Amino acid sequence: IFNNHYNIVGFKKGIFRMKVLLTGFEPFGGSTINPSEQAVHALAGSPPAGIDLSTAILPVDKTTGPQALLKAIAEVQPDVVICLGEASGRAVISIERLAVNLMDFRIPDNKGEQAVDQPIRADGPAAYFATLPVRKLQEAVMAAGIPCDLSLTAGAYLCNQVMYTLLDHAAREKPALRGGFIHLPCLPQQTATRADKTPSMGLDAILTGLRAGLSALVEDQE
Ligand code: PCA
User: Fold this and answer.
1) DSSP at 10
2) CA atoms within 13 A on the CB side of 30
3) CA–CA distance from 17 to each of 36, 41, 54, 179 (Å)?
4) Is 41 a catalytic residue?
5) Is residue 83 annotated as a catalytic residue, yes or no?
6) If residue 84 lies in a helix (H) or strand (E), which one and from where to where?
7) Cα 95 from Cα 98, distance rounded (Å)
8) Cα–ligand 1 centroid distance for 157 (angstroms)
């Protein structure tokens, strides 16, 4: 919370600034776009008030994905880390409650590696709860008119791996760091021609929801 630029005076309402690291993922699984990458780029251009926003796009790669996240955390020294990813098939923005110590990839990562039934950290705890106020976030997104759920699982692929890596790192080395993960539906342009009518959400709606969530975080911190 404290950094070089803000001392205790910085807590006065409206003066406090929160340093947020927001990450997205590169496209994967045969798609050429990822809503999380687009959302990160859009928010980087006009971050919500009160937020010093840093961003990173992580590779969908079981080795370099988590490494890129830890590198960005070391560089930015954020107060809060929010990772975004695409969840094909989900109809609404979903805020993840849990990361589990399991890699069981449904499809290979972008390097062709497919982890099956493996722990993320061999002697790590079974799971971590997100350390963001997930209920408050959900309520803020919904209050902005955007459908949003709390989710019990981020899956067993890269998104869960990165969320677990984030929370494990914070638990062991940075107890003040808060973190969590938000899954986004596909964009309409990813699903328009699909016969299975996979749900989607437009980027504008996604951005409205994410901005509302980020603003709620700043208020919560204040
Ligand atoms: N979604 C995948 C990994 C990258 C992404 O955007 C997942 O849900 O694990």
Assistant:
1) G
2) 4
3) 24, 20, 13, 17
4) no
5) no
6) strand 80-86
7) 9
8) 7
- Check if the beta carbon of residue 184 is closer than 8 Å to that of residue 201: yes
Residue 13's pLDDT is 53
Q: Using CA atoms, how far apart are residues 198 and 186, in angstroms rounded to an integer?
A: 8
pTM above 0.90, yes or no: yes
The region that residue 62 occupies, defined by phi over 0 for left and psi between -120 and 50 for alpha, beta otherwise, is alpha
Strands 93-96 and 148-151: parallel
**Given this model, what pLDDT does residue 16 score?**
77
Atom of ligand 1 nearest to the CA of 84: 6
Which protein residues touch ligand 1 with a CB less than 6 Å away? 25, 28, 34, 36, 60, 85-87, 155, 157-159
Residues 1 and 16 sit within 8 Å (Cβ to Cβ): no
What per-residue confidence (pLDDT) applies to 145?
98
Given 86, 148, 183, 186, the catalytic residue: 183
Q: 124 by DSSP, 3-state: which?
A: coil
Cα(75) to ligand 1 centroid in Å equals 23
Block means of pLDDT (10 residues each) for the chain, 222 residues, are 44 73 97 97 96 98 98 98 98 98 98 98 98 98 98 98 98 97 98 93 98 96 80
Q: What is the pLDDT of residue 222?
A: 77
The pairing of beta strand 18-25 with beta strand 80-86:
parallel
